[in-house]
Every structure is written in C-alpha cells, then in structure tokens.
Amino acid sequence: MQRALGSSLELETQIILSNKLNYITELTTPEILEQIVEVQKMLSSLIKKVKE
Description:
This protein is mainly α.
C-alpha cells in the first residue's frame, strides 16, 4: 500500500509536468489532480487502519 501511495505521488508530479509542457490542457489538469488527491486520501486512511 505504501508503494501505491508513492506511485500516486509520482503520478501527481507527472500530471503537473504534462500540463506545464502542454501535453494536457489547463481544463483537464485540475480534474485529474482532484481524483489523484482523493485516491491518496483513501490510501492514507487504509494504511492508517491497517497499522492499528
């Protein structure tokens, strides 16, 4: 699960770079980042629960 969280952080960085390099539009980027952050929150909660 830690690996999945790390991968989501890497994906977030790649999306930001893709936007800056104009591979994806300004309109698409916030939607994608919002979904990534939601997944990160879910993963963090799951990791926390499993550690308890």
